[in-house]
Automatic annotation (TrEMBL):
Coiled coil: 158-192
Lineage: Bacteria, Pseudomonadati, Pseudomonadota, Gammaproteobacteria, Cellvibrionales
Entry's localization field: Cytoplasm
Molecular function per GO: hydrolase activity
Protein name: GTPase HflX
Composition-biased stretches (Basic and acidic residues): 428-443
Length: 443
């Protein structure tokens, strides 16, 4: 890398401060899980309280001395702060402790670098790392001479620091262009699904809530699953058939975390757009988590940041196998619409209820029934076939065509609008009005 820093190690001292300026402090247990997910071996956990961070070293002199003694006694090679440090704070602390220092953003970046598996995921991680690195370049070249005057000491017109910044900027521009191409490809895929009227349902939620386990349960896929934070980085999509609704695309996405660094939200925009463009969001919640309400608020914050806060949501309370006396069920609102499903993705209990609830929620926007199209209305028949709305058809003796339809209500109203404005309106029988024996025969 560009840094001339001490060699990194596995033995780590964790530092967590309660700052009175922050209304909702982070959970230290989550911080420890992040460190373990990164492969660190925490040997000590130091807590403290401050009104505001010290502008020079974040912690006060006394706490810094306590950390120094702990590093020496434990033989630690790494100190991780559960906060975002400025480049100067990180540099000053390293100078005092004589070991490598990492903040929360750097820790999450390290985890993401380990987890990324696809080419796109690796590009997104590298972009976030490079953006993080640009603010810390000055530390990498403190051992080199800057430009000097005098015979034999004049530089080439550009300091090493300026050279590195230029090279980093060129690499960032290159990655951004490649990710823009990925975004365009994803957008083309979304437009194709939109033309085919295939609904997209995205799994969102706090990291380690069980999204990938649920995804595998619903799709019989083999997505990587581990009981650790950020096990999933790369989006995975599968086609699923729903009763009375038809096909849908289920997308597994990266998990959210409190104070998700803005650099990561920007870098993973191509991935998170799958959630922002979804028809329905399945907000997966760890039902066994003590602070699940706080975690749900953090997810809502990220959804607002990526422009997905207004997309309809279905809450999925997962891990009920860890709760006492909790049975699978569907919670409905006063109008009978499914709002939450309680299940266990590990055991499969309640997953059938989730499929039922998804079908109901997507079915709210669907129209199903029998449409009788006259020979002179063949253009309408062709349009219905074009959007894959026809399930079967049958011709009457007089030449009329009976079409069994399943399509979004918006398309149904759009295609029949010209006939309601003055033309001869086709005969329409919704599914509820059809007798049991009036099934259309396939042509």
């Amino acid at each position: 890398m560009f840094f001339d820093r001490p060699e990194s190690g596995e033995l780590a001292v964790l530092v967590h401060l309660e700052l009175s300026a922050i209304d909702s402090p982070d959970d230290p247990r989550e911080f420890e899980e992040l460190a373990l997910s990164a492969g660190a071996d925490p040997v000590s956990f130091i807590f403290g309280q401050r009104a505001t961070p010290d502008p020079k070293t974040f912690v006060g002199r006394g706490k810094l001395e306590e950390i120094r003694q702990e590093v020496k006694e434990q033989g630690a090679e790494l100190v991780i702060f559960d906060h975002t440090l400025s480049p100067s704070q990180e540099r000053n602390i390293e100078r005092e402790l004589k070991c490598r220092v990492l903040d929360r953003t750097g820790l999450i970046l390290d985890i993401f670098a380990q987890r990324a598996r696809t080419h796109e995921g690796k590009l997104q991680v590298e972009l976030a790392q490079l953006r993080h690195m640009t603010t810390r370049l000055v530390r990498g070249w403190t051992h080199l001479e800057r430009q000097k005057g005098g015979i034999g000491l004049r530089g080439p017109g550009e300091t090493q620091l300026e050279t590195d910044r230029r090279l980093l900027r060129a690499r960032i521009d290159s990655i951004e262009k490649r990710l823009e191409k990925v975004r365009r490809q994803r957008e083309q895929g979304r437009r194709a699904r939109s033309r085919a009227e295939v609904a997209t349902v995205s799994l969102v939620g706090y990291t380690n809530a069980g999204k990938s386990t649920l995804f595998n349960r619903l799709t019989d896929a083999d997505v990587y699953v581990r009981d650790q934070l950020f096990a999933t980085l790369d989006p995975t999509m599968r086609r699923v058939e729903l009763p009375n609704v038809g096909a849908m695309i289920l997308a597994d996405t990266v998990g959210f975390v409190s104070h998700l660094p803005h650099k990561l939200v920007e870098a993973f925009r191509a991935t998170l757009e799958e959630a922002a463009q979804a028809t329905l969001l399945l907000h997966v919640v760890d039902a066994a988590a003590e602070d699940r309400l706080h975690l749900m608020e953090e997810v809502q914050t990220v959804l607002e940041e990526i422009g997905a806060a207004d997309i309809p949501q279905l809450l999925v309370y997962n891990k009920i196998d860890l709760l006492a006396d909790s049975e699978p069920r569907i919670d409905r609102d006063e109008e009978g619409v499914p709002r939450a499903v309680w299940l266990s993705a590990v055991t499969g209990a309640g997953c059938d209820l989730l499929v039922e609830a998804i079908a109901e929620r997507l079915g709210e926007q669907m129209v199903q029934g029998l449409l009788v199209v006259k020979p002179q209305q063949s253009r309408l028949r062709a349009q219905l076939y074009q959007i894959n709305a026809v399930q079967s058809e049958h011709y009457r003796d007089n030449g009329d065509c009976e079409l069994q339809l399943l399509l979004p209500r918006s398309d149904f109203q759009r295609l029949l609008a010209p006939f309601t404005d003055g033309g001869e309106e086709p005969e329409w029988l919704p599914k509820e009005a059809l007798p049991d024996d009036n099934e259309a025969q396939e042509h």
